From TrEMBL:
Keywords: Lipid metabolism, Lyase. Pfam families: ECH_1. Its EC number is 4.2.1.17. The lineage of its organism: Bacteria, Bacillati, Actinomycetota, Actinomycetes, Mycobacteriales. It comes from Nocardia arthritidis. Belongs to the enoyl-CoA hydratase/isomerase family. This is Enoyl-CoA hydratase.
Amino acid sequence: MAEFVTVELPEGEARGVAVLRIARPPMNLLTTQVVREVAAAAAALATDPRVAAVVVYGDERVFSAGDDFAELAELDADRACAMAADLQRALGCLAGLPQPTVAAISGYCLGGGLELALGADRRIIGDNVKLGLPQIKAGLIPLAGIRRLTLLIGPSAAKDLVYTGRFVEPDEASALGLVDEVVPPDDVYTAALAWARQFVDGPSRALAAAKAVFEAGPHGLDRARTEWAELFHTEDRTVGTRSYVADGPNSAAFVGR
């Protein structure tokens, strides 16, 4: 049983939206245990056929205020070297989910919390949120977020955020493309659920294929050929193409196979 992460699954056998919550109050600081619990929960959701999409959330006050520097202060170089690859994979776990994933961000999203959120397909924040990667102020760098941040907002803006460690307000975050939607604080969770629910009746295999191509980066063209061809083995492709011809878009009853 996880101590600091909870998962709400769709009820019964019906497909729906799962909610993965970080629950280490008051600020949801990320220890190595918390990060590993998030990764373990994500791995379980990835293989659950009931899960059509995933919302990642903290609570109404905070998503995650970042790394637990008290823990990091006690690490020696050998231990840090031994755990770096494991932690890097864990912080990037949301990108490996085959389902569409949205981070619902309240309060603060800093350091490792922002690195985790960067792996989601979409980031929705309240209009009072502060974001940033302040690790440089502790003599460190982001372990998992630099590449993904650079792809998202470009190298110049990414270097500014990483080198300075400064906080970003909602308007700037939206202008940079760091987040996708800014809403009133009380609407963050419901907006994330609304985005996720549109995939409940969607073609899960095709969505997973699209995610795999995006994640392939510079090898995306090769991966797209493979994923596209493999979809011709799926029932959803058969249903989707035939219904599209007969009745147009939005007419298919996908079955997730």
